[in-house]
Design brief:
heterotrimer, A mainly alpha, B mainly alpha, C alpha/beta, A: mainly alpha, MetI-like fold, flat, C: alpha/beta, 4-stranded antiparallel sheet, 9 helices, 37% helix, 24% strand, globular
C-alpha cells in the first residue's frame, strides 16, 4: 500500500488555512437559518391559516430534494432573478460582481432552516399550555409570553437537534466548491489535482473535518449546559 | 434568460427516470450490507469487552464526522489501494456502482448501529423475560416478541435513512455514477446546459414525489407492523355505546 | 367590586355552565365548592379569559366586560386587574422564583427593574420564601412553588385574586403551608375567589360560600349559615358526604 506521507505533511497546513472559510460558512448559515426556522416553527405551531400549508409544502420540498440540486438551483437561478429584480428597480449594480459566498450562505441554510423549524415546533409543543396561561395571568400579552417563557423553553428542548444541525452544516460545506467558494474540501481538490495525489489530499480533509466537528460539538455542549441550567437548578437538592 | 418549456422538462424527466434503477440498486445493496455492519457494531457496542465497545464507537464517531463527498472520494481513490494497487488505479475495471455501494454501506453501518440500539432499548426488558417464561427459546423469543417490536420502533428511522440515502447518493455523480442526477447532467451536458432550469424542474419532479411516496410507504409499513394497536382500537370501540352494538358478540 | 352575570359555557354537547351569577365585594373571600364537573373551575377560567364563555358579562372595578369577547387587548386589560393562582402552579420553569414574580411587573407593566425587585422581594418574603429568591421551580417543593405562585399574583397588586384549587395538586403535608398563606392574605383584606375542596378552610376563612352543582349555583351565603343550616337539599347532601362527623349547631 503506497501512500505519499510527505505530501500529506505538506498539504495539511495548506488545506488547514481554509478552515476559517468553512467555519464562516457554518456560522453565517446557522445564524441565517435560525430566525427563519423560528418563524416557520411559529407559523406551524399556531397553524396560521394560509401560511401554514405553504410553509409545510416548502419544508417538504426542501426535505425531499438533494442538497446538491438545491445548490445548483440557487447558484444558477438566483443571479438571473436578482439581475432582473435590480433592473426593475433601476439599479445598475452588476450581480455578477457579488461574491459567490452569499449564494453559499443561502443554499446551505435551506436545509438547516427546515430542521430547526421542526425541532422548535416540537419544542414549543412540549412546553405545556400552562406555562402560557401563567404568563397571561400576570398581564403579559401573548407575544410577550412566547418570547420570555415559551420560546426559551422550546429552544432548550430543541438543543440536541441544534447540535446536530451544526454538524450537518459543517459537512454540507464540503459542497461549497461547486459555488466557487474555496473551503477545505475545495482546496484539497485543487492540491490533489495538481499532483494527482487525490487520496492523500482527501485524507487530510477527512482528518480536519473530524477535528472541526469534535471541537464544535464541545462548544455546543458547553452552551447547552448553560442555557438548560433551569432544568437542574444551581442549588443542592434541598427541597425543604 | 433561458426558455423553460414543458417539452424540455418532459425530455429530462423521461430521460432520467430509468436511472432510478441505479438509485434503487445502490440503496438496496447499501441498506443490506450497512445493516449487517450495523448489527455487528451493535453487538460490539453492547458486548462486555471495553475494547470492542471503544472501537465500535470510534467507527461511528469518525463516520458521523465525515461528509459524504469526502467519503466518496476516499473510497473511490483509496479502495484500489487496499487491494494492493495504486491509489486511483482500477477505476476503469470496476463499475462505479461498487465504490458507491461501499461508501454508503460504511455510512449505513454507522447509522444503523445507532438505530438498532435505540430500537432494542425501546422494547421493555420484561417482554423478553415474559417470552422466556412461557417456554420460548432465546431465538424464538427474539423472532416473535422482540424483533417485531424493534422493527416497529425503528420504522420511522429506517424510512428516514432510505430517504437520506437517496438524497446523499445524488452526490455520486461526481465520481461518474449515472443515477438520476448523473443521467440528468449527462443529458444536459449534451445540450450545452442550455436548458438547465428545465432540468432542475424535472429533477425536482422526480425527487420530491418520490420522497413523499416513500414517507407514506414507510408510515404504512409502521401501521402494518402493529396489528396489536389496531385491535386495541376495536376493543375500545366496543366499550362505547354505539360501538357495543356493532361489535357485540 | 366584581359582579358576574349569567355565564353560559358549553364544550360541544356538554353544557357546563348554565347561567351563573354572583357578586364579590371588596375584601370578600369567596369559597366556591362543588363536586368535580360542577363547572367551578370552568367558571374561574372564563373570568380570566382562558376559556371563552358562550354568554355572560362581568363588571370589575367599574369596568364592564362581555365575557364572550375574543379581543386579546380587552382580555389583557382585564387580566391586568386580576391575578390567577393555578392548581398546578404554572411557574415559569426557566425563571428563578424572583424572576417569576418580577416578570409581571417588568414586562407586562413596564416597571423598572429596581422597583420591581423591591416589590417582588417583599411578596416572596411575605409568603415565607425570602431565602429562596434565586431558586428555580425544579428546586422547590410543590408547596413552595405554589407559594411563589401566590407571591407572583400578589406582586401585580390585583383587585381580585382567583385561586383554582390551589392545594389539590399538593401532598397532604404541604397543603397546610399554602392554606396558611391564603389565610394570612384573607386577614389582610385581599379580595379572593377560591375554588377549593378544603371544607374546613372554606368554613373558617371564607366570608361567602358558593355551592355549585351541574353548572348552576345551588346556594350561596355566609359560611356559618351554609355549613350549619343549608337551605337546599342538594347542598345538604353534598356537605353531608364530605363532613360526616360535622356537628350541626341547632
Amino acid at each position: 500500500m503506497r501512500v505519499d506521507l510527505e505530501f500529506i505533511r505538506q498539504a495539511l497546513p495548506d488545506i488547514a488555512k481554509y478552515i476559517p472559510v468553512t467555519l464562516l460558512l457554518v456560522v453565517v448559515s446557522f445564524f441565517l437559518s435560525f430566525p427563519a426556522g423560528a418563524l416557520f416553527a411559529w407559523i406551524n405551531y399556531k397553524k396560521i391559516r394560509g401560511l401554514s400549508p405553504l410553509v409545510r409544502a416548502y419544508m417538504s420540498l426542501i426535505r425531499g430534494t438533494p442538497v446538491i440540486l438545491q445548490i445548483y438551483v440557487i447558484y444558477n437561478v438566483t443571479p438571473y432573478l436578482l439581475a432582473s429584480l435590480l433592473e426593475h428597480m433601476g439599479s445598475s449594480f452588476n450581480v455578477y460582481r457579488l461574491n459567490t459566498i452569499w449564494y453559499a450562505f443561502f443554499a446551505l441554510s435551506l436545509s438547516s432552516t427546515v430542521t430547526i423549524a421542526e425541532a422548535l415546533r416540537a419544542g414549543m409543543e412540549t412546553v405545556g399550555r400552562g406555562q402560557f396561561e401563567g404568563g397571561l395571568s400576570v398581564g403579559m400579552s401573548g407575544p410577550q409570553t412566547m418570547w420570555h417563557i415559551v420560546f426559551p423553553q422550546a429552544l432548550t428542548a430543541a438543543m440536541p437537534v441544534m447540535g446536530n444541525v451544526v454538524v450537518e452544516l459543517t459537512k454540507a460545506t464540503s459542497l461549497a466548491f461547486t459555488m466557487a467558494v474555496t473551503e477545505i474540501t475545495g482546496r484539497a481538490k485543487i492540491l490533489g489535482g495538481s499532483v494527482l495525489r487525490y487520496f492523500e489530499a482527501y485524507i487530510c480533509v477527512f482528518v480536519l473535518y473530524i477535528v472541526i466537528i469534535a471541537l464544535l460539538e464541545q462548544l455546543f455542549k458547553r452552551f447547552e449546559k448553560r442555557i438548560s441550567v433551569y432544568r437542574t437548578g444551581r442549588h443542592s437538592r434541598a427541597k425543604a | 434568460m433561458q426558455k423553460i418549456t414543458l417539452e424540455k422538462i418532459i425530455y429530462f424527466f423521461t430521460g432520467s427516470v430509468p436511472a432510478l434503477g441505479v438509485t434503487f440498486a445502490y440503496v438496496i445493496v447499501s441498506m443490506i450490507f450497512g445493516t449487517i455492519i450495523g448489527t455487528g457494531l451493535y453487538r460490539m457496542k453492547s458486548s462486555h469487552s471495553k475494547v470492542a465497545g471503544f472501537l465500535a464507537n470510534l467507527y461511528v464517531t469518525v463516520v458521523r464526522c465525515t461528509p459524504s463527498l469526502v467519503m466518496l472520494f476516499l473510497v473511490f481513490y483509496g479502495l484500489p489501494l487496499l487491494v494492493g494497487g495504486e491509489a486511483g488505479a482500477r477505476m476503469e475495471e470496476w463499475p462505479i456502482l461498487t465504490f458507491v455501494c461501499v461508501t454508503f454501506s460504511i455510512f449505513i453501518g454507522a447509522s444503523s448501529s445507532e438505530i438498532i440500539r435505540a430500537a432494542v432499548e425501546a422494547v421493555p426488558a420484561g417482554q423478553a423475560e415474559a417470552g422466556l417464561s412461557v417456554g420460548l427459546s432465546g431465538m424464538q423469543t427474539f423472532r416473535y416478541v422482540t424483533l417485531p417490536q424493534m422493527l416497529k420502533n425503528a420504522m420511522p428511522n429506517i424510512g428516514n435513512t432510505v430517504i437520506l440515502l437517496i438524497k446523499e447518493g445524488a452526490l455520486a455523480y461526481t465520481i461518474g455514477l449515472r443515477d438520476v442526477l448523473g443521467q440528468a447532467y449527462y443529458l444536459s451536458g449534451r445540450e450545452m446546459n442550455a436548458y438547465a432550469v428545465s432540468m432542475y424542474i424535472a429533477l425536482t419532479l422526480i425527487y420530491w414525489p418520490l420522497t413523499i411516496l416513500l414517507e407514506h410507504l414507510f408510515a404504512a409499513f409502521e401501521r402494518a407492523l402493529t396489528p396489536w394497536e389496531r385491535k386495541g382500537k376495536r376493543a375500545a370501540l366496543r366499550r362505547t355505546a354505539e360501538g357495543g352494538a356493532k361489535y357485540a358478540g | 367590586m366584581l359582579s358576574v352575570r349569567d355565564v353560559h359555557k358549553s364544550f360541544g354537547d356538554n353544557h357546563v355552565l348554565k347561567g351563573v351569577s354572583f357578586d364579590v365585594g371588596e375584601g370578600d373571600v369567596v369559597a366556591v365548592l362543588g363536586a368535580s364537573g360542577s363547572g367551578k373551575t370552568t367558571l374561574l377560567r372564563c373570568l380570566e379569559f382562558f376559556e371563552h364563555a358562550d354568554s355572560g358579562s362581568m363588571e370589575i372595578d367599574g369596568l364592564q366586560v362581555d365575557l364572550t369577547t375574543h379581543s386579546a387587548r380587552l382580555s389583557r386589560s382585564i387580566r391586568q386587574k386580576t391575578a390567577f393562582v393555578f392548581q398546578n402552579y404554572n411557574l415559569f420553569n426557566n425563571k428563578t422564583a424572583l424572576e417569576n414574580v418580577m416578570l409581571g411587573l417588568t414586562v407586562a407593566r413596564k416597571m423598572d427593574r429596581a422597583s420591581a425587585r423591591k416589590i417582588a422581594v417583599a411578596a416572596l418574603t411575605k409568603v415565607g420564601l425570602g431565602e429562596r429568591l434565586d431558586y428555580y421551580p425544579c428546586e422547590l417543593s410543590g408547596g413552595q412553588q405554589q407559594r411563589v405562585g401566590i407571591a407572583r399574583a400578589l406582586a401585580v397588586n390585583p383587585k381580585v385574586i382567583f385561586f383554582d384549587e390551589p392545594t389539590s395538586a399538593l401532598d397532604p403535608e404541604l397543603v397546610g403551608e399554602v392554606l396558611g398563606t391564603i389565610r394570612q392574605l384573607a386577614a389582610e383584606g385581599t379580595t379572593m375567589v377560591v375554588v377549593t375542596h378544603e371544607m374546613s378552610f372554606a368554613r373558617d376563612v371564607a366570608t361567602k360560600v358558593i355551592y355549585m352543582d351541574g353548572g348552576v349555583i345551588v346556594e350561596q351565603g355566609r359560611p356559618d349559615k351554609i355549613f350549619t343550616r343549608p337551605e337546599n337539599e342538594r347542598t345538604r347532601r353534598f356537605l353531608a358526604r364530605y363532613l360526616q362527623d360535622f356537628d350541626y349547631n341547632i
